[in-house]
Design a protein that fits this description.
heterodimer; A: mainly alpha; ABC transporter involved in vitamin B12 uptake, BtuC; two-stranded antiparallel ribbon; 65% helix; 4% strand; disordered N terminus; B: mainly alpha; two-stranded antiparallel sheet; 13 helices; 68% helix
């Protein structure tokens, strides 16, 4: 491998040579986070160049993003509010990606989860004056059920017919959005507006601001119980993946499907199950978002959380705990992105970050050595 | 609801899928999956429209669209060919990147004004044939005609020429191709570029001819992904890709037109009576893609043919194995 990948230059030679060799020894533990950090910094730098090309001031934009999301405790609580759905969706992606199933359909599963949760209030399944805990429980279950259903279809097709799950999950996204639109525009439309009526207060997840009577500091803070659910889910997913036999199966299939098959692990069954649990998590994200933040079903409930989850999962190196931190970072980006112009900036920066992250993986696998060229 | 008009418009809108699908076929035949088609198409659509508004010359727009999308595709090429990253993730990243860059650069473009759409051309004699001739050769723009010539040429290139043989060799067995003196890396870079440029052309076809304008992400509305699905349906063959593309184009058009008339086959048209049912119609192309994929995958499993053997695998020179 060493020099083979680089064509040999004839004629003029630099006094130093760059040698690329595969890593043989274990990589040091700090290398991976360091590389991610460097990748994000480089991405922000490239993003800055693109910003100035588009006519914006990169430094001002970044300052604005930072101030609008970490400036004080109130905006930080908004950041956490945005981080909540991202965290749950990221966990959905992590679970599937560990098995090397590319669930890009978290966006659709998120929408269906939101729809399933709305069903409880709007059909109505539960009467308006039901106790809050019952609302939370049934809405969450319904959201997870419909999310899981949306994950089941691609999972089943993949397991049974080897259908590429990337395309099916994506197509399911578009179908989910049309499905939701039908209900928002016609059946559940409130007075012809493209949104449903407001949910009763019992169906709202408690927010920090609701406890202002006891703790005045919390007044007006929007972080809601979904964050807690997300953190618990992160622990559960970590436990499943790294401490349970099922998680071992999932990771084995992801790392070496052949070995998994010889070990008697059913890839078919696990594909369907993982896609369903992944869909359920994304559905839970949808439920938590409409019950905790939006309080009604409408078209614009997601600025692409499902896709952000893919990037955050990669940034977190498919580690559920790292996902918590990474989600907050992206929550900040999305929160601040609502106010800065042009509106595509957060999406562009997300794209650049993902590109840099993938590129940086190369340095995990190869040693780059720069050495003085010997006089020949 | 005139069948000829629907099919005519269907062929036109199928041309978009045709370019994108064939571009992806080239790329995958060389062993590289590029899932960034949607992003590259968006970039192409945006730059084509933007340049055409600025210069008034649609061909300058097409050229810039192909260059921009081709440039974007090279990001994927470097990451997957030299840095050997996972092609799936890199392709996704490319879609995010392409979408984001197009949104930023296309800010305000939706109000930028109108452009002279590519003019419709009727081919004499051929265009006078009733039905078939009217569908394919009457009032179509130049890109549609280019498509007719293009896909058989691509088939010929891949299956009957020496560079086409090299292309297939690189996608099937790169180590053997390398041993025969074909530069695997260069070939792959080249066809990723070709795929990118064709995706850019597909995007330009949308924003300059099919539905002129820039409507942010809705410009492509998932057609890039449908193209990736069509590649599997077409089993990496340009001729079948053309069939699939035109069928999908007609389907998209039919969905738009079916909501028009009050009566349909002597019955009350439900989509006219309740326009909200239109949302279910909108699902059809995506649902149909899934169905087509299932059919394609079953076929491929039964006949054991289809995907290039080295698809998705980075080639590392001097490493054991394929």
């Amino acid at each position: 491998m060493s020099e083979a990948t680089l064509p040999k230059k004839k004629g003029f030679q630099l006094p130093i040579a760059v040698r690329i060799e595969p890593r043989i020894s274990e990589t040091p533990f700090w290398l991976s986070p360091l590389l991610s950090l460097v990748a994000v910094l480089i991405a922000l730098f490239i993003g800055g160049i693109l910003l100035s090309l588009a006519g914006a001031d990169p430094i001002l934009s970044y300052q604005h993003i930072f101030k609008a999301s970490f400036g004080d405790w109130y905006v930080f609580s908004d950041t956490l509010q945005k981080a909540t759905p991202i965290l749950l969706v990221t966990l959905a992606c992590i679970l599937a990606f560990r098995m090397r199933i590319w669930n890009i359909g978290a966006e659709g599963q998120f929408f269906l989860g939101a729809w399933g949760a709305s069903l409880i209030v709007l059909l109505p399944v539960l009467p308006e004056d039901s106790p809050s805990w019952l609302f939370y429980l049934v809405m969450a279950l319904s959201g997870m059920f419909f999310g899981a259903l949306w994950g089941f279809v691609p999972g089943f097709l993949k397991a049974k017919f080897q259908v590429n799950e990337i395309i099916t999950t994506l197509m399911m996204n578009y179908i989910a959005i049309s499905w939701n639109n039908y209900f928002i525009f016609s059946v559940w439309s409130e007075g012809g507006f493209q949104m449903t009526r407001m949910f009763p207060k019992n169906a709202w997840l408690p927010r920090l601001g609701d406890f202002a009577a006891q703790i005045p500091f919390f007044r007006g803070m929007t972080t809601h119980m979904g964050l807690l659910v997300g953190i618990v889910a992160a622990v559960v997913i970590w436990y499943i993946l790294f401490r349970s036999p099922w998680g071992y199966e999932i990771r084995l299939i992801g790392d070496n499907p052949k070995a998994a098959k010889y070990a008697g692990i059913s890839i078919t069954r696990n594909t369907v199950l993982v896609m369903m649990l992944s869909g359920a998590l994304a559905g839970l994200a949808g439920m938590s978002e409409i019950s905790g933040t939006v309080h009604r079903l409408q078209g614009a409930i997601s600025p692409g959380y499902g896709f952000t989850g893919v990037i955050v999962a990669w940034l977190a190196k498919l580690n559920p705990f790292a996902a918590i931190l990474a989600s907050i970072l992206f929550g900040a980006l999305i929160l601040a992105g609502r106010e800065i112009q042009p509106s595509g900036i957060p999406k562009m920066i997300q794209g650049v970050i993902l590109v840099c992250l993938i590129a940086s993986d190369f340095f995990m696998r190869y040693n780059i050595r720069i050495e003085r060229r010997k006089e020949a | 609801m005139d069948l000829v008009i629907i099919l005519q418009a269907g062929v036109a809108s199928g041309t978009v899928l045709l370019f994108a699908t064939i571009g992806e076929i080239f790329c995958e035949r060389a062993g590289v999956t590029n899932l960034g088609v949607e992003g590259m198409m968006l970039l192409g659509a945006m730059s084509a429209f933007s340049v055409t508004v600025a210069t008034g010359n649609a061909f300058a727009g097409i050229l810039v669209a192909m260059l921009a999308a081709g440039l974007l595709s090279q990001v994927h090429a470097v990451i997957t060919i030299h840095l050997q990253a996972d092609q799936v993730v890199s392709g996704l990243a490319l879609t995010f990147l392409g979408t984001g860059v197009s949104l930023v650069l296309g800010e305000g473009l939706s109000k930028a004004g109108t452009i002279a759409v590519l003019p419709p051309i009727t081919i004499p004699v051929l265009g006078w044939i009733p039905f078939i001739g009217e569908i394919f050769f009457k009032n179509q723009n130049i890109l549609v005609y280019f498509g007719y010539v293009f896909f058989p040429l691509c088939w010929y290139f891949i299956n009957r020429t020496r560079p086409g043989l090299h292309l297939r060799a690189v996608g099937e067995y790169p180590a053997a191709a390398d041993a025969l003196g074909i530069n695997v890396y260069r070939t792959r870079y080249l066809y990723v570029l070709v795929g990118g440029m064709l995706a850019g052309l597909a995007g330009a076809t949308i924003s300059l001819a099919i539905s002129p304008g820039w409507f942010s992400e809705l410009t492509t509305a998932g057609q890039g992904w449908i193209a990736v699905g069509l590649v599997i349906f077409a089993r990496w063959d340009p001729l079948q890709a053309a069939v699939g593309s035109y069928i999908f184009g007609a389907l998209r058009r039919l969905i738009l037109d079916i909501q028009g008339p009050a009566m349909l086959f002597g019955l009350v048209n439900p989509f006219f009576a309740n326009p909200y049912y239109g949302f279910f119609l909108q699902m059809i192309p995506y649902a149909f893609t899934v169905i087509v994929l299932v059919m394609g995958s079953r076929e491929a499993m039964r006949k054991r043919l289809g995907a290039p053997a080295a698809l998705g695998l980075p080639y590392i020179r001097g490493q054991r194995g394929a």
